[in-house]
Write a structure and sequence with these properties.
12 helices; 29% helix
């Protein structure tokens, strides 16, 4: 088993980081580019696992696709293949075979698709008989995963009757739905989104040159590092104030944890502000991928917190709520789940393990969120290679702290 051993980095932080391109934007851009039959290559594509498997599937002549642990690829390609004439099989890792996909499959089948489960009902692997889709009107639970919604939205223009989606319940990750809508607009498709209803008429995508922006989710770990260190400065290239990404909210949120953001022409400059809240309370329903970053940051800065809106964390690469509770106990922090989709730390401590070894659960964000623990104490990260899912150069960049 690979283990990354991290020791206290330098006290002086002055870095310039080339962030990876956004995985979320890259995967949507690949699907939209394919739907538009575009001759243009997407510029600045992410080099992460999720994007590579999506690109490989779209460029392949195979009929069976193993997408490993790439959840975005599983959901987007399931929808894409359902409207692509042919017989397809899509499978993944053991964890992927236990991540639910029934809501998306039921929706697609009701719109004219024919998708069957090969092993366990409601879970991959899937056999997909691709054909033209009728479309129509469906109702979806908006509290499960916005990726189901985005997957349906992107293929909707090619449904014979278009598509109307009525979103029910507590709708999570709205910025990701808005990201999909904005990108579809760039590729020439009009989407109407009002009063929890999404309406997309039958129409055609237009080939469009497109460049992917840098990843705000990846940026959050550098905010975390500077917040915990409390001194120095970090310049993050390729980010701007007007972003498609909901995780750009990190800039505003980290103002409460001592980090100031200065927007410049080539990126953003992070510097300490000294402003700290006494307790951090926030509903992460629109930015669930930031929850691990903020949980670790708050604990290491001794700031009690109460997070809500974390329902989707249980169906990510791992059950991230359980993983945070387990792993933050190792450096001595006792967390609770006071209600479904919530996470709480009231300041309660326990004795830290003499040797802190963090399990990553095949989850890239566990590895990256816990790496900054090294600013306070030695720590080991098990299976550090998982960062390749979204930020392949993370350890190279993190090692710059040690020089």
């Amino acid at each position: 088993m690979d283990i990354k051993k991290l020791y206290s980095p330098t006290d002086f932080i002055q870095l310039e980081i080339n962030l990876p391109a956004s995985k979320s934007i890259s995967n949507r851009a690949l699907i939209l580019n394919a739907l538009a039959y575009s001759p243009y290559e997407i510029q600045n594509l992410s080099d992460c696992d999720d994007t590579r498997v999506t690109m490989k599937a779209l460029d392949s002549n195979d009929t069976t696709f193993d997408i490993g642990a790439a959840g975005t690829a599983m959901r987007f390609l399931t929808a894409f293949l359902s409207k692509t004439v042919g017989e397809w099989v899509i499978t993944g890792s053991e964890r992927m075979k236990n991540r639910p996909i029934k809501l998306l499959v039921d929706a697609l089948n009701s719109l004219g698709a024919r998708i069957e489960y090969i092993e366990k009902e409601g879970f991959p692997p899937l056999r997909i008989f691709g054909s033209a889709l009728l479309g129509g009107e469906i109702s979806l639970n908006g509290s499960v995963s916005s990726q189901y919604i985005s997957a349906l939205m992107m293929i909707a223009p090619y449904m014979q009757n278009g598509l109307k989606i009525k979103l029910e319940g507590n709708i999570i990750s709205v910025p990701y739905i808005q990201m999909t809508m904005s990108m579809m607009k760039e590729f020439g498709v009009h989407v109407k989104y009002k009063n929890n209803e999404i309406e997309i008429k039958s129409q055609l995508y237009k080939p469009t040159p497109f460049k992917v922006e840098s990843d705000w989710s990846a940026a959050s770990y550098w905010y975390e590092i500077l917040s915990i260190a409390g001194k120095g400065q970090i310049f993050l290239k390729g980010l701007n104030r007007n972003s498609y990404q909901g995780d750009s909210k990190a800039a505003e949120l980290f103002e409460h944890l001592g980090v100031k953001t200065d927007y410049q022409s080539e990126g953003i400059l992070l510097t300490p502000s000294g402003n700290l809240t006494n307790k951090f309370e926030y509903d992460f329903v629109n930015q669930p991928d930031l929850a691990q970053t903020f949980a670790v940051t708050c604990c290491l800065k001794n700031i009690p917190f109460h997070f809500k809106g974390l329902q989707s964390l249980k169906i990510k690469e791992t059950n991230r709520i359980a993983a945070l509770i387990n792993e933050l106990a190792k450096p001595g922090f006792i967390l609770f789940e006071p209600a479904e989709g919530e996470l709480l730390w009231n300041g309660e401590r326990c004795e830290a393990n003499k040797k802190i070894s963090i399990d990553t659960y095949e989850d890239h964000r566990m590895a990256m969120a816990f790496a900054p623990v090294a600013l306070k104490m030695p720590v080991e990260i098990k299976h550090p290679e998982v960062v390749s899912k979204s930020y392949p150069t993370f350890w190279y960049d993190f090692d710059l702290l040690l020089t």
